[in-house]
Amino acid sequence: MLSQVKRNEFSYRAPRGTSDILPREQGYWRYVEERAHAICQLHGYQRIETPIFEDTRLFVRSIGEETDIVAKEMYSFPDRSGAMMTLRPEGTAPVCRVYIEHGMHNLPQPVRLYYIAPIFRYERPQAGRYRQHQQFGFEAIGDGNPALDAEVIDMAWQFYHSLGLRGLWLKLNSIGCSSCRPSYLESLKGYYAERIERLCPDCRRRLVQNPLRLLDCKKESCVDIKESAPRSIDHLCPRCQDHFQSVEKYLALLDLPFNVDHRLVRGLDYYTRTVFEIQPQGEEGAQSTLGGGGRYDDLIEQLGGKPTPAVGFAAGVERIILNLKRQNIAAPVPPQPDVFISYLGEEAKDKAIEYGSRLRREGIGAILASSGRSLKAQLRQANALGMSYAIIIGEEELGEGKVTLRDMVSGEQRQMSFEDAMKSLKEKQ
Ligand code: HAM
After folding, report:
1. Which long-range contacts (CB under 8 A, 24 or more apart) does 150-155 make?
2. Which helix (H) or strand (E) holds 427?
3. Ligand 1 pocket: which of 289, 308, 321 to mutate (most atoms <8 Å of CB)?
4. Exposed end of the chain (fewer CB within 10 Å): N or C?
C-alpha cells in the first residue's frame, strides 16, 4: 500500500536542464533549421550525421582533459561490454573522426560539412544554459588558408543576419600555433605566478595544468588580473601573424564589424590561430554567446589522421531562439491543414473518412472532427484550430449526395458535389 502511495506521489518531469519542445515552439525551431540549411547550401556545405554517443577517448583527446567539458560535464557511461561511451558534448571531434575514418582526405579539399544535432553537457542549468541543447555547426576541413577562416566567420554572421538578428558583436583573437604558443604560455604563467595569492582556487590549478584557461575565468577576483595579462597576439610567430592579418583584412573586406578580444581563448583545447565568438551586444557572460568557433589545425593529426588544417563554428539553437524572442522576431507559423471535415452520424462518418483521405492525396491538408459532437460544436472546434474551410456532411447533404463547403472566415457556405468542393479548395491553395 505504501509503495502504491509513493508511486502515485511521484510526478515525472523532464530531467533538469532539458526541455520539451512543444508544438507552439516548433515554428521557431523550423525557422532556425531552415535558415541553417539555406546558408549551408549557399556555401556548399553538406550535411553529416554522427552517432549521439562515441568512445569517450575521442572527446578526452580532442577537447582536452583539463577543460571544464571533459573534467566536469560529460555524460559518460560504460556500455554493457564495459567500453566507456560519452554522449556527444560537442560536434567537431566526431566530424574529424568521420573525416579520418571515411578517408575524406581523398575528396577535393576542403571538405565542407555541417550538422544540426543534440549536445549534452552536465552544466548548472540557467537561462540559455542547458544539459541538452541543439547545435548547428559547420566545419571546413583540409585547407589552411585564412580565406577559409573568413568564409566560416562570414557564414556564421550571415546566418544570424538571415534570421533577422541584429546588434551582434563579433569577437576575434589568435591564440597562435604549437610553435609560438609555448613562449606565450611561459609569459602568461610568469605574470600569473606573480599574482598567485589573489587567484581563485580554480585559477591556481589552471596555472599549473592549463594556463590558457586562466583567461577564461569569470570570477570577480580574477577578472582584474586578466585585464592586464599578456596578450597572445604579441607572441605570434611570423606565420601566425601573417595569418591573423589576412583574416583581419578579409573580414574588413567583407564589412564584418569585428573587435579583437585579447581574452578570447574558447573553452576547448583544440584551437590554433583564429578563435572567434558572436554575442548579443551588451550581454557579456558565458551563457549569452550565440556561437563560436575557430581553427583547429592539429586536431585531425592528434586523432590519428594526416596533418590536416581545419576551421569551423557552432551555434546554440536555444540561445538563438531566446534572442529572436528578445528582438521580437516572430517565426513564420508552420503550415497546417486548411480543411475541417465535420459530419453527423455513422454513414456521414464513412464519407468523411473517404473525403479526408482523397483531399490529402491531392495535397490538401484536412482534419476530421471528433465523433459524437453536434455540428455546432464541431464548427467551434474548427474555429479554435484556425481552420480556413469546413466540409460539412449532415443528413441533408447525405440525402442529396453533396457536401457543404463553408468559408470559416466569412461564414459563406454552398452545397456542391465533393468533386467540385475539392476543385474549389485546390484553386484556393
Ligand atoms: P562551444 O562554444 O562550446 O563550441 O559551443 C558552441 C555554442 O553552443 C555556444 O556558443 C552556445 O551558443 C551553445 N552552447 C554551448 N553550451 C551550451 C549549453 N549548455 N546550453 C545551451 N547552449 C550551449 C563548440 O562546441 C565547438 N565545437 C564549436 C566549433 C565548431 N569550433 C570549431 N568548429
Report:
1. 150/247, 150/250, 150/251, 150/253, 150/254, 151/43, 152/293, 152/311, 152/312, 152/313, 153/247, 153/251, 153/256, 153/258, 153/276, 153/293, 153/313, 154/251, 154/254, 154/256, 155/39, 155/43, 155/313
2. helix 418-428
3. 289
4. N
Q: Which domains does the chain have, with CATH numbers?
A: 12-180+236-326 (3.30.930.10), 339-428 (3.40.50.800)
Residue-averaged pLDDT of the chain: 94
Quick one: pLDDT at residue 228?
A: 92
The stretches of 262-366 forming alpha helices (DSSP H) are: 299-302, 317-326, 346-361
Q: What integer pLDDT is reported at residue 314 of this predicted model?
A: 98
pLDDT in tens, 293-329: 999 999 999 999 999 999 999 999 999 999 999 999 9
C-alpha dist (Å) from residue 189 to 44, 115, 209, 268, 412? 42, 37, 11, 19, 79
CB 134 less than 6 A from any atom of ligand 1:
no
Amino acid type, 214? L
Which triple of cell numbers denotes residue 186?
611561459
Decide: 397 and 415 in contact? Cβ < 8 Å: yes
90 C-beta closer than 6 A to ligand 1: yes
Q: What is the DSSP letter of 129?
A: B
268 Cα nearest atom in ligand 1? 3
**pLDDT tens, position by position, 57-106:** 999 999 999 889 999 999 999 999 999 999 999 999 999 999 999 999 99
> Ligand 1 centre from 62 Cα, in Å?
15
Q: What is the pLDDT of residue 385?
A: 93
- Answer yes or no: is the C-beta of 390 below 6 A from any ligand 1 atom: no
